[in-house]
Amino acid sequence: MTQEQYFKNLNVPKGKIDVVLDTDAYNEIDDQFAICYMLRSPQKFCIKGICAAPFFNSRSVSAADGMIKSYDEILNLLTLAGEEELKSTVFKGSESYLANETTPVNSEAADFMAELAEHYSPEAPLYIVAIGAITNVASAILKNPKMKENCVVIWLGGHGVHVPLGASEFNMRQDIAAARVVFGCGIPLVQLPCMGVVDHFATSKYELEHWLKEKNPLCDYLYKNAVEEAESYAAGKPWTRVIWDVTAVAWLLDEDSKFMKDRLIQSPIPEYDKHYVFDENRHFIKYVYEIRRDVLFEDLFRVLSR
Fold first, then answer.
1. Phi and psi of 147, rounded to 5°?
2. DSSP letter at 36?
3. Rounded to an integer, what distance in angstroms lies between the CA atom of residue 63 and that of residue 76?
4. Is it the case that residue 21 has pLDDT exceeding 90?
5. Who contacts 195 (Cβ-Cβ below 8 Å, separation ≥6)?
6. Rounded CA gap, 33 and 299, in Å?
């Protein structure tokens, strides 16, 4: 890939694009919003596949269990959205994280992305939106190095570069080895950092109730799921809930730069001690540094409720 084409691929693409979504859909309540935002934006997205990512926290007993629960949640959302035909393009992901930075974890998802990338080029790339641990994507890159030229990755992962322990964010710290592969391999990469940037994208029960409740079955599910989750720890108190995974999908929709601002930076190096290290000789990535919260929520609610 020429340098000119590389930098071109770090810009929001014009027109309709082919896309794969890699998601730990059962981990929180925000993946569901991101999935539905993509499903309800057919003018922009030709969805080639949805891959289940591993996760391990209080909602799973292992990374493999988190992946299977995410796989089932993706199928559930497709049913609610009336998108049954897309179920054939849902793939199970990794059951574990990378053991090192050279050995991929075998999975349907990694094989699917590695094979699919063969049909694209730097001039007409495949876009991969990742909103969980980056294990599946890193494994696919290790399986097929052509992905570095034929794909663009948009990842919600890591904290802002100005945040102490920037690599301690949940998606990144689950699989630092995979993050180091993706940040180090030279693939066109867009990073949406969590704390310090995308954590501004939060909403409340009252907004969700006003804009989503009783609009359609999918909106009712999103509303109920989000409110029940927040009130499981904050009942009777004021709360807002971050819906940050939406922003990774929104970056690809932001042809007019209404939703966010970004800039080029040298690719950070996520270290195993959860710090970033910086090297002025590293290649550039696109780094989102501001979210225009109200404008993006207006579009999200409009798209979901119509």
1. -60, -30
2. H
3. 20
4. yes
5. 159, 160, 163, 169
6. 12
**Range(s) of the domain holding residue 96:** 3-305
Q: Is the pTM of this model over 0.85?
A: yes
- Domain of 30, CATH number, reads 3.90.245.10
Query: What sign does the dihedral 146-148-154-159 (CA atoms) show?
Result: positive
Residues in the chain: 306
Rounded distance between C-alpha atoms, residue 150 and residue 126, angstroms:
6
Q: What is the DSSP string of 151-172?
A: EEEEEE-S--TTSTTGGGSHHH
**Secondary structure E strands in the chain:** 17-23, 45-52, 90-91, 126-131, 151-156, 189-192, 202-203, 241-242, 260-266, 269-270, 276-277, 284-291
Residue 54 token pair: 């591993």
Q: How many separate domains does the chain show?
A: 1
Q: What are the structure tokens assigned to 135, written together?
A: 């294990």
Q: Could you tell me which of 180, 165, 159 has the C-alpha nearest to residue 242?
A: 159
The string of pLDDT tens digits covering residues 114-171 is: 999 999 999 999 999 999 999 999 999 999 999 999 999 999 999 999 999 999 999 9
Q: How far apart are CA 221 and CA 227, in angstroms?
A: 10
CB of 83 within 8 A of CB of 116?
A: no
